[in-house]
Amino acid sequence: MSAKITIGCDKRNKEKPWVCRWSGDFDFDTGKSKRYAKSFRLKVEAEQFAAQQTVEFSRGGLRDESKETLKPFCDKWLRLNNSHRPATQKLYGHTIERLLNYFGPDCLLRRITTDRAELFIAELRPLKGDKFSDWTKHRTLRHCKTMFQSAVRWGCIPKNLFIDIEGPKPRTTPWHYITPSEYMRLLDAAPNPRWRIFYALCYTGGLRFSEAVALRWSDINFLSGEVTLRNRPGTDKEPEFLLKDYEKRTVPLPPTTLDMLEAAEAESTYVVLGKAQYEKMIKLWQKHRQSWKWQDAFYNAGREFGRHLRKAEIEPAPGETLSIHTLRKSCIQNWSNGLPMNVTRDLAGHSNVVTTQKYYCQVDPYYKAKAAEVIEGLLKKVDV
Fold first, then answer.
1. Could you give phi then psi for residue 365, rounded to 5 degrees?
2. Measuring CA to CA, how many Å separate 356 from each of 7, 176, 348?
3. Cβ contact 184:312 at 8 Å
4. 280-298: b or e for each residue (b if 16 or more CB lie within 10 Å)?
5. In the chain, at which end, N or C, are there fewer CB atoms within 10 A of the end residue's CB?
6. Which secondary-structure segment (H or E) carries 21?
7. Rounded CA gap, 272 and 215, in Å?
8. Distance CA 132, CA 152 (A)
9. CA separation for the pair 125, 95 (Å, rounded)
10. What is the average per-residue pLDDT within 56-83?
11. Domain extents for the chain?
């Protein structure tokens, strides 16, 4: 169908005589196409609109006005994207609740203009029981971009009006880099082999909390010295395990960690969990499948980690964060100091190298201290 829009003059309409007319897409049920018209006061306004719409139609833009409203669209989007983890589904639910509260459930998607989309992001407010920060705004904007891109793909709207919005830049909090000597002190402070293995998997293998807790003995290849992380569906006896970004990856472990694993006693199919913890985990999984988190299998790990830090005399500087996840960050920092960034990204299991560089690789204090020495060395070579 032609993307052309005709311009005519209706002298009966004194206020807006210039009219743009175009046909919608052919409807095979009725055998017809709907006709549309838009009036303007000046001819130049009509010509500008016609030129703009002609370009949009030639790019595959909507010729018919969509009647899709916000609430049915959000419900459909959730149904078609129900493979997310429960925690991710909950966060998308927060975004949808904010959208419905602001625009209303019966708001037509095509009525969400650029200025209204920008105002929505600018005027975001916390929900009940919701921790609100610039990170929340950033996440909400990211969710909107993802959801409304689906609306474009489904033909509900011609353009994703959230895609060009720049939200507040989240402030990145510095984290405490755990040095190799501090890591060794942490191992000495750990109360039993399973805690030491847990710390070793995070610090020397870069495993996330859930990846370390969910690791099974069958995932370890002692001949090649590698662990393989992959998705596992849930059963009546075993909880599901989903990798972030759903990408299988293989990570090599250093000999010191492999020796620690070989010397450990296998009390269950899981490396970190003892027999009692394993039995408790299965009961929790069978009772709380919809809200399952692997953190529940290693209960109060954060509190115990704090005790071990104090015993090892490891204390972050003022303003620095230090958590179990910092072990993984420190491992990625160590990798980045000796490996190409694309290799570090692959080992870390990140889908984008920007994530690795921005959030996991801080400037090493050693190299920062060397900066003045580098300049001084160059100056000394200059012949005056």
1. -55, -30
2. 54, 16, 8
3. no
4. ebbebbeeeeeebebeebb
5. C
6. strand 18-27
7. 7
8. 29
9. 11
10. 80
11. 6-58, 70-153, 180-365
Residue 170 structure tokens: 């989240």
Q: What is the CATH number of domain 180-365?
A: 1.10.443.10
Question: Considering just the CA atoms, what is the radius of gyration of the chain in Å?
Answer: 29
pLDDT band at residue 56 under the 50/70/90 scheme = confident
Partners of 35 in the beta sheet? Answer: 23
In sequence order, which ranges of the chain are alpha helices (DSSP H)?
Answer: 43-58, 70-80, 86-103, 114-122, 134-153, 180-189, 193-205, 209-213, 255-263, 275-287, 301-311, 324-338, 341-348, 353-355, 365-380
Q: State in Å, rounded, how far the first CA of the chain is from the last one.
A: 75
| Stretch (H or E) spanning 40 | strand 32-40
In what helix (H) or strand (E) does residue 37 lie, and over which residues does it extend?
A: strand 32-40
**Residues making up the chain, counted from first to last:** 384
Please give the Cα distance from 150 to 157 (Å, whole number): 9
**What pLDDT, in 10s, does the model give residues 139-190?**
999 999 999 999 988 878 888 989 989 877 767 778 999 999 999 999 999 9
Q: How far apart are CA 88 and CA 384, in angstroms?
A: 63
Q: What is the pLDDT of residue 26?
A: 67
Q: How much is the mean pLDDT over the chain?
A: 86
Residues 4-16, mean pLDDT to the nearest whole number: 89
For 295-339, what is each residue's pLDDT tens digit?
888 888 999 999 999 999 999 999 899 999 999 999 999 998 888
Do 249 and 229 contact (CB within 8 A), yes or no? yes
Q: Do 233 and 283 meet the contact criterion of CB atoms below 8 Å apart?
A: no
Q: Report the alpha-carbon distance of residue 49 to residue 273 in Å, rounded.
A: 66
Is residue 262 within 8 A of residue 253, CB to CB? The reply is: no
**In the chain, what's the furthest Cα-to-Cα distance?**
93
Q: Give the pLDDT of residue 1.
A: 46
User: In this structure, what DSSP letter does residue 36 have?
Assistant: E
| DSSP sequence for 93-129 | HHHHHHHHHHH-TT-BGGG--HHHHHHHHHT--PPTT
